[in-house]
Design brief:
Blueprint (H helix, E strand, L loop, with lengths): L1 H5 L1 H20 L19 E3 L5 H6 L6 E3 L19 H7 L14 H21 L3 H7 L1 H5 L6 E4 L9 H10 L7 E6 L2 H13 L7 E5 L1
Length: 216
């Protein structure tokens, strides 16, 4: 009972976070007062929208057919939004139910052993429920990624370049007919962004000569 009580908050997050997050996103209001990206965005471009809102359509009049809401559209009442953290290999290894190291634990007290196992199962469920299912998104949208094979310029605006989204960028690069020649234009706002851009470029094996950064 103590273990179940301890992991109770994690179970609450698993159960309530998706719905609460969608409710919060639905309250966000989009203002038309400023259009800082008007000179960058083109109606002829293809867009991958990571932030759940229709600001591209509302503010910049981008046709909806040109936009892929990769993690869901807040206006869609039939599907949940995709959210979560990046899979952390070390954490997963520690709680992977298929590689449980509990047999190696030198716990003489049965109660302590049961406590450990209950917490292990509960945290494993939390980990799985709150990890962003990037691989599932990729597997369900192979054709969309293949449609980017002729893209010559990629413009990344306002993206944190978190590792959780790396698989998407790798997929775009993988299917491109001439990925080495792709030009990357990446926005930055803070010094932290510059560090993430450097890491991203290295991880994607992008030549520095093909990268231009601009401040937003």
């Amino acid at each position: 009972m103590a273990a179940e009580a301890a992991i109770g908050p994690a179970q609450t997050i698993m159960r309530e976070l998706p719905g609460e997050f969608k409710n919060w996103v639905s309250t966000l209001e989009i203002s038309n007062s400023a259009k800082p990206l008007a000179d960058i965005l083109s109606n002829e471009s293809n867009f991958i929208n990571f932030n759940y809102t229709e600001f591209l359509e509302t503010i910049y009049r981008i046709p909806k057919k040109n936009i892929w809401y990769i993690h869901g559209d807040r206006r869609d009442k039939n599907n949940e939004l995709i959210l979560g953290h990046a899979p952390e290999a070390q954490f997963k290894e520690e709680i992977d139910l298929h590689k449980s190291k509990s047999k190696d634990l030198k716990i003489k007290n049965q109660t302590a052993y049961d406590l450990s196992e209950t917490a292990r199962y509960g945290l494993a469920g939390y980990y799985d429920a709150t990890t962003k299912k990037s691989i599932d998104v990729i597997n369900d949208n192979k054709d969309k990624f293949k449609n980017f094979r002729h893209i010559e310029d990629v413009v990344v605006i306002g993206h944190s370049l978190s590792q959780v989204d790396y698989p998407y960028f790798k997929e775009i690069i993988k299917y491109n007919q001439n990925s080495a020649a792709m030009n990357w234009h990446i926005s930055w706002y803070s010094s932290g962004d510059l560090k993430r851009i450097k890491q991203f470029v290295s991880e994607m094996n992008i030549s520095n000569s093909k990268v231009k950064i601009f401040r937003t």
